Amino acid sequence: MSKVVIIMGSKADLEWAQKISTALQNLEIDSVLRIASAHKVPLKCYNLIKEYEKENVVFITIAGMSNALSGFTDAQTHCPVIACPPYSDKFAGADLYSSIRMPSGVAPLTVLSPENAALAAAKIIGLSNPKVQKAIVDFQEKKRKELEEADNNLAHDK
User: Fold this and answer.
1) Distance from C-alpha of 101 to C-alpha of 106, rounded to nearest angstrom
2) pLDDT greater than 80 at residue 73
3) What is the distance between the terminal CA atoms of the chain, rounded to a whole angstrom?
4) Signed CA dihedral, 65, 80, 114, 1: sign only
């Protein structure tokens, strides 16, 4: 397991997918971007899932409004699935319910930030890949140092 397959519900999700892909690259993880709507082309979507699952990948799904893609993907594979729906002001966030309410036996993880979805995928991959695990540890240490530096740059009352 060393690759992430990002499945978008439509081309409109490409910018969101690229944010995830960039974050994965920063953690030294390869990704593949595909478009396959669970509503409009379910057979294509199913075939993509079945083809990529042979490689024991992590799937990240991106679909807004009515997110059938994440649940459909999770129900068709033994591989981990992370739903990362793009936020839309159109529905005041209510469209997220289609990502977080799943039927029994269907359990995609939901992570709203593209960067954090990439980190979650990396942590899954890192369980069996020491190189990725080291990249995660380095990333976390960098984040800690950034916080310490920000605090040190503030004027403190003594």
Assistant:
1) 10
2) yes
3) 51
4) negative
